Amino acid sequence: MRRYLTSLAVLALLGGCAGLEDPYRRAGTYAPTGINEDNLRLMAVNPVDLQQGKGPPDTTGTTAALAVTRYRTDTVKELPNSNLSSIGGSAGSGGQSSNGVSTGAAQ
Q: What is the mean pLDDT of the segment spanning 94-106?
């Protein structure tokens, strides 16, 4: 008798799962149709470019290949100092230039 009641309880619980379905398969839910790929194919001047890209006509890729080699061998070049700003430098001037004229800074 106990086995029968357990089976009945399990079947009742599983019956509640019948309404659960994949939310993407419900009626009225967005379904991808491939429209983005179709638009891209229409906009491409040369359809072969969608299969294999092409680089700029004035380069052979040597510069990029050398950069990858330096990266892989851990000999990356240092970036040049741009001298545009110094992070952590002084907070500003004292409010006057070297000739005694005020620079407009608060004093």
A: 52
At residue 10, the 3 state secondary structure works out as helix
Q: Nearest 5 degrees, angle CA 13-CA 15-CA 19?
A: 120
**105 in helix, strand or coil?**
coil
pTM over 0.85: no
Say how far apart CA 54 and CA 50 lie, in whole Å: 10
- Give how far Cα 10 sits from Cα of 21, 39, 62, Å: 19, 51, 68
Whether residue 41 contacts residue 50, with contact meaning beta carbons closer than 8 Å, is answered with yes
Q: Note whether 63 and 55 are within 8 A (CB).
A: no
pLDDT digits (tens, 9 = 90+) for 63-90: 889 999 999 999 988 888 877 766 665 5
Cα–Cα distance measured from residue 36 to residue 52, given in angstroms and rounded to the nearest whole number: 18
Q: Which two tokens stand for residue 76?
A: 């990356």
Cα distances (angstroms) measured from residue 104 to each of 33, 90, 94, 98, 101: 62, 17, 10, 14, 9
